[in-house]
Amino acid sequence: MSPASVSIVIPAYNEEDTIRACLIAALQQTVPADEIIVVDNKSTDGTAAIVHALQATYPDAPIVYLQQFEVQGLIPTRNFGLDHATGDVIGRIDADSVLEPTWVEAVQRAFEDPEVAACTGPVLYYDMPLRRFGLKADDALRRALIKVTREYHLLFGSNMALRASAWRAIRDEACLDPEDELHEDIDLSLHLHANELKIAYSSEMVTGMSARRLDDSPLKFYNYVMRFERTYQKHKIRRLSVRAPMAIFLSVYPALKTVREITQLQR
Questions:
Q1: What is the phi-psi region of residue 178: left when phi exceeds 0, alpha when psi lies from -120 to 50, beta otherwise?
Q2: Dihedral sign, CA of 181, 71, 154, 16?
Q3: Where are the domains of the chain?
Q4: Predicted confidence (pLDDT) per residue in 144-192, tens digit
Q5: Which CATH number fits domain 6-266: 3.90.550.10, 3.40.50.300, 3.40.50.1820, 3.40.50.620?
Q6: For residue 246, which phi and psi values (nearest 5 degrees)?
Q7: Which of 8, 91, 151, 263 is the most exposed place for a label (fewest CB within 10 A)?
Q8: What is the pTM of this model?
Q9: By the 8 A CB rule, do 241 and 195 touch?
C-alpha cells in the first residue's frame, strides 16, 4: 500500500514574523508534503508578500496561497483550508509552528493504521531554554494525559493531522464559535469522539512552536485556559478527568512565565 498523500494547512493572520520559518521547515522534510496551503485571513502586514516571495524562490515547491477574507476568525479560515486540501491526510499547524524534518514521514507512519482518523504529537518550544529536555517533558506529559482522560483523546491545534474522510464526516458538525470562546482543537476532538473516530498519538510527530502565550498577563492566560471548560460545557461533557489539561496549564504557568521572563531579559 502506498503512503498517504499529505497536505499541510496553515491559517495565517498578520504572521510576517513567523510565516517564513514555518514554510521553510515545511519544505525541508525528509518526505515532502504534497501541498502546503497558507490560508490568509485578512492580513494587513507582509504575510502575503513573504509567501509569494517563497513561491518565486522555490517555483517547484507545492506552496499554495489562498485567501479567506469573508469572515475574520481562525475556525472559518481553518475550515477553508481543510476544505480545499487534496491530500488523503490533512495536517493542520499554526503559522508559528516549525516542523521537525521528519514530521511528514511520521504522519504517514501514523496513518498506516486504517483505524486512525486523526493524530497529534508533542511540541518543542523553540524560544525557551533546554528545548530538547522540554520536548521530552512535553511528550511524557501528553502520554500521561492520554491515560488520565481515558477514551477522550485530545488533538493539539499546533500539531495535528486528520484523514480527509474524517474531516468530511464531522465538517458540518464542528462548531463555528463566532463568539471565539472555545478551543477549536478540543472541539474537533470531541466531534471525532462522538463519531467513534479514533485519535492517535505519535511521539515521532514533533513540531516546534513559540511559547509566546506565556507573555500574556495572568488574567488573559486564565481566560485562555478556561476555553477548555467552555468547550466541555458546549458539548455537555461533565467528566472531571478531561479537565486535567486545564489544571496542569494553570499550575505550571507561574514557573514557566518566570523562566520565559528570565530568558527574554538575557537576550
A1: alpha
A2: negative
A3: 6-266
A4: 988 888 888 999 999 999 999 999 999 999 999 999 999 999 999 999 9
A5: 3.90.550.10
A6: -60, -50
A7: 151
A8: 0.94
A9: no
Cell 469573508 -> residue: 70
Confidence of residue 8 (pLDDT cuts 50, 70, 90): very high
